[in-house]
């Protein structure tokens, strides 16, 4: 993971030092929808092998995907940058460990959470010369890591460690920055994978 971040940083730094004086830098913060990590919480083996059923529906607390996108755009309308984002879903709930518990009424308490961090290099093609609307198409590829946590008050419960099965993040997207004032705009983006089907945020350009 450290090597990946080092290579990404050196690559972007080299680009920053080599672009012309007419290149443009922009930075965006965004929030994506929907957060789908709740499905990963209940599909983990720590849940599947432990939870027979729950007395009530599970209520999840979700964060993100929330992210930061830094982009350097050259005179040729080609941009390159870094896209970092984080997502989390967590829940505290009561459960039955087996059929006999559901009959006797014995319940246990579990705290479960799942998070994902992504770091991607993004390549963007910008279109048009409009100073207000800046449409683009993007391709991102990089690193992805997941974290899972399951704790229970059932005597004898032991959490099973889990690893990231696919440590690669990918995103294909299209969108636009709409500048409501000279250098501050609204980011609107739709994409596949990599953190949110829809993204809404704010962009500042220099």
Describe the structure using short key phrases.
206 residues, alpha+beta, eight-stranded antiparallel β-barrel
The amount of beta strand, in percent, is over 45%
H/E series: HEHHEEHEEEEE
Indicate the radius of gyration in whole angstroms: 21 Å
Termini Cα gap: 31 Å
Global outline: elongated
User: Mean pLDDT, rounded to whole units?
Assistant: 89
Q: What is the number of helices?
A: 4
Oligomeric status of the shown chains?
single chain
Strands of the biggest beta sheet: in what spatial order? 1-2-3-4-5-6-7-8
The major beta sheet can be summarized as: 8 strands, antiparallel, barrel
Number of strands: 8
| Class by alpha and beta content | alpha+beta
Low confidence ranges: none
The percentage helix is 10-25%
Summarize the model shown.
By secondary structure, this protein is of the alpha+beta class.
């Amino acid at each position: 993971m450290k090597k990946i971040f080092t290579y990404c940083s050196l690559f972007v730094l080299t680009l920053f030092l080599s672009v012309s004086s007419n290149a443009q830098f922009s930075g965006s913060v965004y929030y994506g929808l929907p957060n789908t990590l709740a499905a990963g919480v209940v599909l983990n083996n720590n849940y599947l092998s432990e939870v027979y059923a729950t007395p009530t529906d599970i209520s999840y607390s979700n964060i993100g995907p929330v992210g930061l996108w830094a982009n350097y755009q050259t005179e040729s309308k080609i941009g390159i940058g870094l896209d970092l984002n984080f997502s989390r879903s967590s829940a505290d709930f009561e459960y039955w460990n087996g059929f006999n518990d559901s009959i006797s009424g014995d319940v246990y308490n579990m705290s479960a959470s799942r998070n994902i961090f992504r770091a991607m290099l993004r390549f963007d093609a910008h279109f048009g010369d409009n100073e207000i609307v800046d449409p683009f198409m993007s391709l991102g590829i990089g690193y992805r890591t997941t974290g899972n946590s399951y704790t229970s008050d059932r005597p004898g419960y032991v959490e099973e460690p889990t690893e990231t099965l696919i440590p690669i993040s990918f995103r294909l997207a299209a969108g636009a920055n709409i500048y409501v004032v000279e250098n501050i705009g609204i980011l609107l983006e739709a994409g596949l994978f990599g953190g949110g089907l829809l993204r809404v945020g704010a962009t500042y350009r220099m």
